[in-house]
């Protein structure tokens, strides 16, 4: 079996969805080792991501899982540093944060709006910033951001729409350092998202 990413290290931050599983399996089958982290400190998120980590282990790839609040910049930076310390490098970040709300427009509170932006826009930014710094020092890497899935309230859609502008700016900032930034459409089937993320990582 071809292993185009053999020797590479991929970090995935997510909620443990079937999309996250498809991403992890695709990268593992391509030969990459994986560092996984939760997007929130909940038992459900931990169990779901642990199941994915076990599947990566079955495929024979090195892996570890970090329980993390992805909206906390200190924890996100610590995770990025841990990936490099434990695995020696990081080549790809997949920021698969996804926390859709379902508040009716006329009932959406300011607090619900703030939480949606924190989880779906600020958290991916913090991850991109932390891992991008490391990739910049290493003179190359790939960051993949996952866009909106179907459904979700107006706060979720607004947060996910911001990813496109953020990605364009990050790409411009890091182009000279060899760090590429891509957005994958979260409305696509999980397997197609995984294929596109893998293609972005392969360049």
Quick take:
The chain contains 6 helices and 6 strands. The protein has helices at residues 18-29, 43-58, 73-87, 110-137, 154-174, 190-202, and strands at residues 9-14, 33-38, 63-66, 92-95, 141-146, 179-184.
Describe the overall structure:
The structure is a single chain. The protein has helices at residues 18-29, 43-58, 73-87, 110-137, 154-174, 190-202; strands at residues 9-14, 33-38, 63-66, 92-95, 141-146, 179-184. It is of the alpha/beta class. α4 (110-137) packs parallel to α5 (154-174). The protein is globular.
Primary descriptors:
203 residues, alpha/beta, Rossmann fold, six-stranded parallel sheet, 6 helices, 6 strands, 52% helix, 16% strand
Strand order across the largest sheet: 3-2-1-4-5-6
Q: Calculate Rg over CA atoms.
A: 16 Å
Per the CATH scheme, the topology name is: Rossmann fold
H/E series = EHEHEHEHEHEH
Count of alpha and pi helical runs: 6
* Estimated structural class: alpha/beta
Number of strands: 6
Strand content: 15-25%
Low-pLDDT residue intervals, each spanning 5 or more residues: none
**Whole-number average pLDDT?**
94
Q: CATH superfamily assignment?
A: NAD(P)-binding Rossmann-like Domain
Topology:
Layout lengths: L8 E6 L3 H12 L3 E6 L4 H16 L4 E4 L6 H15 L4 E4 L14 H28 L3 E6 L7 H21 L4 E6 L5 H13 L1
Parallel strand pairs: 1-2, 1-4, 2-3, 4-5, 5-6
Helix pairs in contact: 1-2, 1-6, 3-4, 4-5
